[in-house]
Amino acid sequence: MLAAAFASWIEKLSERAFDAPFLDLLRAQGFYDIHFTHGPYEFGKDFIAKRDEPTPVQYAFQGKAGNIGGPAWMEIFSQLLELASDGPAHSNFDANLPRRSVLVATGRLTGKATIGPAQLQAHLRKANLGDFEVWDLDVLKELLTGSPRFGVTPVPGLLPVLGHVEAGIPTERVLERELAALIPPAGAPLSHVRRAFVDGSLVVARLVDKNLPFLALHAALNGVRIAAARAHTNLVEGGDLLRDAFDSYISLGVSLLRPLFDAPEDSKVWLSFVGGPSRLPTYPVACVKVLEFLSLAALHREHHGQASEARALVEVAARAVRSQPGTAHPISDRFAASYPPVLTALVRFGQGDLAARLARETAKWVCDRYEASPYGLAGPYADPPEEVRTLLGAPFECINLRKRRESLLAVALADASYVLGLPDYDNIINDFLAVGIVPYAIHAEDNSDAYTVSKPSTAVSKPGTVALVNIRYPDIRAAAPLPHHALQALPRVSERAGGPAVPLALACLTRDRLFSDVLPRLRPSST
To answer: How far apart are CA 236 and CA 225, in angstroms?
Structure first.
């Protein structure tokens, strides 16, 4: 199954879509001093890297997508000569080392192209330009599945999660639990961490193939979790990994959600995007998940000095909030984690009035649900059927539901309103009290275990966590931090390594904890 999944993934990749996974594969196989050199001045070399075999060897790679026949081989022959040449290259290319030139193809060589590599190899050796080899689809499968030639094998936990994906439609809860097995242990070599990134990319690709964009984005957040866990072992390595993982997440989201970004005000486009007969619950899910992505991407971009890109993302989010009513209608507490980053991003980019409106309308929706039914909204550990039963089943006596007054959504909205200085904070708190909502959350300690969800329970704290039951909020805003934020007054390790968007992204993966103690450091000075 692994070999078939790897082959299916590779065969569908475009030339440039394979770049990021290929970089991680190189790192996992012991390559170092790696540079992506593709561009107008690459001189045939898409990547350069070194590896000790046992002495250093200088590698140069040229990537091509799909099968390569005789005509295509003739077209790329001049590039392959440049690939192996002594000509201009990146400053880190060491022409004095033994060298190996590699053509990387996501397909196979066919026809007359099959004899080309041997001829080129003979020419290069005669010219003292090193060795040449082809990594085609079969070699890439060998590289991905592991062999004596390529020693770093897939993470053992990859097969079970792929099994869930291939057997049917997985849920976010299943993905979070199964993907946790991909996190390397604290003492693992960095190459194993990079290998885990590759394995995660395969899971994401299979979900994309099955047209499950929001589950694919959820799975992509596991890369952020892997990197955040590494930060607890090595802060610098964790920081580099976090930027790579977050950039990959953003690239995926922009690709998958482009139709919605191009028409943020058009509800027909959004309804068509989710499709199917069950649009009543899936439309608001899509709305909230899109806002979640846009805000996390914007906060990450802003932290890394890309303010204009961040502002453009927030503008799309703002247009959606104004036009899509589903943005204020979360169907369960599983979407509580989506609101702190959304409200924060809006406030940070001058959309404070819109943030206040979103918080007010969402709070009204939550209060209406708890006032109309003793069952409220489903909790953070609910699966989709339970979410829908709780949302739609209250009027029907034949549907068995559990009475529920706890609300993580209440905590998310109250925390953000207090910290960000939203004008309706006191009204939101009073409305929650008036309908008998019990604000409930989990505070997780600052360690790598905080990024995974163990057995769900609303009554007993999990190891390394503290249950915050019936949180008491001040009647009015003050300068003092919220008491439950004071439990983690200093930045978490993941925040120090990758910026404040990282804990908020991890909350969107785990779904049962908010990490909202990061919000005071995201509050604009004017508030």
So the answer is: 15
* Predicted pLDDT at 83: 84
pLDDT above 50 for 302 = yes
Q: In terms of domains, do 148 and 161 share one?
A: no
Same domain, 90 and 169: no
Average pLDDT of span 377-384: 93
Residue 259 has pLDDT above 90, yes or no: yes
Provide the domain limits for residue 228. 155-256
The pLDDT of residue 202 = 87
The pLDDT value given to residue 399: 57
- How far apart CA 289 and CA 286 sit, in angstroms, is 5
Same domain, 108 and 228: no
**Packing angle of the helix pair 501-510, 279-303 (nearest 10 deg):** 160
In sequence order, which ranges of 275-351 are alpha helices (DSSP H)?
279-303, 307-323, 339-348
Whether residue 264 lies inside any domain: the answer is: no
Length reported for the chain? 527
> Are 282 and 294 in a shared domain?
yes
What band does 28 get if pLDDT is binned at 50, 70 and 90?
A: confident
Query: Kindly report the CA angle at 243 between 89 and 419, in degrees rounded to 5?
Result: 150
Q: How many CB atoms lie within 10 A of CB 112?
A: 12
Residue 47 and residue 60 in contact, taking contact as beta carbons nearer than 8 Å? yes
- Does an H or E element contain 70, and which? helix 70-84
From residue 414, give the alpha-carbon distance in Å to each of 326, 362, 466: 20, 11, 19
Query: Is the pLDDT assigned to residue 436 strictly greater than 70?
Result: yes
DSSP letter (8 states) at residue 422: -
